[in-house]
């Protein structure tokens, strides 16, 4: 009996050792699995920027308009000489598993530069990004020491997927801070956003869905799609009803989703917004920005509103001043990291 008990005791001890080994082995397997998951995540992250192709302007149709011959040499015209200081890339990146096209423009000197996400206007091919946008619209900003990135949005400019005019295509912008993390010269702790017209609407949408943006500028921005279709019925028949999924069944819901004036309380009180609008804008009436500013007042959202007398949709009559205001805003809140405005009522 004594011998049997001893054997049983030893047998139990042996089983306990085996159980401990199994537990230890399971721990190692779990740790190894976590390492694999982490490594896989990192691999996925590095695939965000699927391709980055440097564009040589000399190989594009716009080169002749940007250059002139001086003493037998082809050089950039005086107003375009900054093009020697920047690089322009055509990019493809992933958003919701779709391959999305866009442009990236950056200074060609080493360093770390604040970033600006530019949101294009229009819909489908109207307003789609061309090489000229990279060289001039984005290039004018990049030359001041910024990495500028812009999306064609899904379904446009060779991108996969279907455009939704402020629906799931907003994700194509929200993912861009992650894409920028793969750009060596990009300082992703300082990201601003700039959108015009429909791009302004996209900017408003993004600002309520992420805290990655430190400052924003919008011009001629859509803030009320109900007003848009009253002013321009063709916007409903030719754009909204064609691009927004289930528009006929969910018209009011879908228009509210895309109208910042309906959810001004959702904006962060930490992100200063510069609103620019021309008083003679027929595409997006100036009242849209005026009324949104009143909503921002109500909820104490930091903003500055500038109305340009006689300005059209692009405020082309005041282009120099507009460009200065945009750059000054980003200089202040991105480069100089000025504290947010004090929106509490104060003073004598």
TrEMBL record:
Keywords noted in UniProt: Hydrolase
Positions of the Peptidase S9 prolyl oligopeptidase catalytic domain: 142-336
> MF terms per GO, please?
serine-type endopeptidase activity
Keyword Cytoplasm in the entry? The reply is no
Q: Can you cite a GO biological process for this protein?
A: proteolysis
Q: InterPro entries from the entry? A: AB_hydrolase_fold, Peptidase_S9_cat
Q: Tell me what this protein is called.
A: Prolyl oligopeptidase family protein
Q: Which organism is it from?
A: Lutibacter maritimus
């Amino acid at each position: 009996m004594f011998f049997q008990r001893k054997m049983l005791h030893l047998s139990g001890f042996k089983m306990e050792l085996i159980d401990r080994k199994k537990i230890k082995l399971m721990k190692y397997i779990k740790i190894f699995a976590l390492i694999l998951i982490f490594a896989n995540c990192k691999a996925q992250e590095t695939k965000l920027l699927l391709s980055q192709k440097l564009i040589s302007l000399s190989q594009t149709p716009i080169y002749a308009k940007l250059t002139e011959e001086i003493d037998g040499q082809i050089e950039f015209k005086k107003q375009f000489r900054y093009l020697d200081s920047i690089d322009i890339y055509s990019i493809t990146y992933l958003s919701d598993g779709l391959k999305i096209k866009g442009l990236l423009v950056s200074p060609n000197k080493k360093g770390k530069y604040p970033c600006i996400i530019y949101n294009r206007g229009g819909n489908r091919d109207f307003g789609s990004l061309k090489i000229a946008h990279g060289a001039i619209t984005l290039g004018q900003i990049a030359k001041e020491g910024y990495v500028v990135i812009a999306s064609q949005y899904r379904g446009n400019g060779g991108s996969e997927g279907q455009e939704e005019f402020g629906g799931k295509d907003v994700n194509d912008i929200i993912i861009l801070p992650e894409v920028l993390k793969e750009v060596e010269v990009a300082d992703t702790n300082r990201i601003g956003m700039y959108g015009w017209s429909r791009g302004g609407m996209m900017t408003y949408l993004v600002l309520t869905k992420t805290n990655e943006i430190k400052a924003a500028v919008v011009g001629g921005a859509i803030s009320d799609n109900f007003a848009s279709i009253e002013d321009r019925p063709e916007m409903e028949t030719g754009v909204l009803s064609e691009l927004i999924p289930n528009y006929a069944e969910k018209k009011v819901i879908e228009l509210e989703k895309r109208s910042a004036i309906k959810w001004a309380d959702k904006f962060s009180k930490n992100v200063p917004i510069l609103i620019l609008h021309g008083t003679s804008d027929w595409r997006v009436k100036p009242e849209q920005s005026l009324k949104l500013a009143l909503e921002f007042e109500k909820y104490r959202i930091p903003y500055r509103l500038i109305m340009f007398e006689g300005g059209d949709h692009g405020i082309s009559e005041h282009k120099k001043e507009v460009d200065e205001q945009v750059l000054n805003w980003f200089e202040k809140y991105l480069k100089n990291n000025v504290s947010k405005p004090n929106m509490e009522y104060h003073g004598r």
